[in-house]
UniProtKB/TrEMBL annotation:
GO terms for biological process: receptor-mediated virion attachment to host cell. TPR repeats lie at residues 29-62, 63-96, 97-130, 131-164, 233-266, 267-300, 301-334, 335-368, 369-402, 403-436. Keywords: Repeat, TPR repeat. GO terms for molecular function: protein prenyltransferase activity. One of its GO terms (cellular component) is cell outer membrane. PROSITE patterns: TPR, TPR_REGION. SMART domains: TPR. This is TPR repeat-containing protein.
Amino acid sequence: MSLENLYNDRREAALADFNRAIAIDENYAWAYFQRGQVLRELGRLEESLDDLTRACDLEPDDPAYHAERGETLRMLRRHEAAIEAFSRAIALRPEYPWALGSRGQVWRALRRHHEALVDFDAALALNPNLAWIHAERGESLRALNQHQEAIEAFSRALAIDPAYPWALGHRGITYREMRDFPAAIADFDAAIALQGNMAWLYAERGETRRLADDFEGALADLSRALELDSAYAWAFGSRGAAFRAVGDLNAALADFNRALELDPGYTWVYFQRGLLHRNTNRTDEAIADFSRAIELEPNYIAALAERGELFRLQRRYEEALRDFNRTIELQPDHAWALGSRGQVYRVLARYDEALADFNRALALKPDMVWVIAERGETHRLLRNYNEALEDFNRALELSPNDSWVLSRRGATYQSLKIYEEAYIDLTRAIEIDPNNAWAWAQRGSLFRQM
């Protein structure tokens, strides 16, 4: 074999030599250790694990052997076994930054971020110049919603290694979660300039553009991500949301369906597809999707609120109340859910509870026109006509051409026997919405009463 061939295929050459060494001495721990690392580099993880386990059995007090075995277990996503292997390495060599950082990665994969941070901090205390550990620390901080601290950690990683696409990409994600879309896109641009064949970077930039309402750019990026990885469920889901935003509902539905074929447990896509079904009046399909999202994630606030609203529209009031109650229990300041629950209480003639919900909603968001109007209607039904007029007037200041509010104010004037104002409001309501049957009937009753 020539030197050029050796250079081009050195892993295979190394593997052949380690095979020969082990054939000569089947108890050669160091050869198993080296071969195990080569096999891992070649993607042959199970064989790698066998070799590294054999090395640990032969020399159980070598921390490097346990640490490398932990790394293979981490890549196999056998997280508990990986923790044990790294812990054994750290027990043998407490000042072992690589093993501490790698165990931190496993804690992070298990979403045990506080334990991950303990390991990352210990590793960095031993060696503060390890860019990858600063970046991993940033990702745990991001997961804990400590966004500014995460930005600082990613920036520290990039100060050490400016050409670090993973750190750039994850700092970009953090900026996006902070709603700083220009900073996020700048990081994704820099990462893609360094490594232009990574599907996840295009997908993350596309999602950022979608959230920034740059749907054309989002669709271009997400399509590029899918060119690079045609089985990328997350990118299909995000592109489906972008298609829905621009009104291409068939393309959106196709993307959502494909995402769920690839990942049947993709909760966010069930929710997004539910919104699409809701907006196209496929109520039963929407409820099914929201229900599946809730089944997968019982505390999914947005899905609970949306399903509650659909139950309300179907006059399934007890089911609606159950969903709104759970939404508000999980998020007491959810103004929309409070207003919607108030609507249910109003329909059920539970007026005091309705008013309490409308008041809470408006304390959170004072200019929610529909809630102001619903409170006005509740006052009208309670014959609190002055309070009703106050609310209807405020609603019409904010939304002057609201047929529903005009018709209810007209009815209030009618109850107060202010017939001319009642006629003006009811007529105006009919002009704005000729299909407002309630306004037609109310004006008919006005004619009889005048």
